[in-house]
Design a protein that fits this description.
This protein has 126 residues and is of the alpha+beta class. The chain is built from four helices and four strands, in the order βαββααβα.
């Protein structure tokens, strides 16, 4: 049986992009993106927030039933149009997946602040 995963999306938005003020174009694009992703088969929940040190950076964590569930969405006909609306608002976008030691990672929805670190080139510890 496939393992659930969390997709970690780090988005650097262009200065002045406002995701939270209702009625702005950028808030509408963001809201539509969140709604589209939430409708996908295998989607469980998501959390997002602005980095405290740089509010132009958003961390978006999306829980999926499996990596293949997310890949099915990214291969779907609706994906290119969905992402095409977001990209003009961004300077940089990076995503990767991980399997939390406790799933679902509910603390993400209740903690007032989280710190998220990604380490590359580290050998696994048994």
């Amino acid at each position: 049986m496939p393992s659930p995963v969390t997709e970690c999306v780090v988005i650097t938005f262009k200065p002045g992009v406002d995701l939270e003020t209702s009625g702005t174009d950028s808030a509408q694009v963001w809201s539509e993106l969140l709604a589209t992703v939430a409708k996908q088969p295998g989607y469980q929940r998501s959390y997002w927030g602005h980095q405290l040190e740089n509010p132009n950076i958003v961390l978006w964590l999306v829980d999926w039933d499996s990596l293949s569930a997310h890949q099915t969405f990214t291969s779907s006909p609706s994906y290119p149009g969905t992402i095409a609306r977001l990209l003009p608002l961004t300077e940089h976008l990076h995503l990767h997946h991980f399997s939390p030691s406790v799933f679902p990672p509910r603390i993400l929805g209740s903690a007032p602040v989280i710190e998220f670190a990604t380490f590359y080139g580290i050998k696994a510890v048994d």
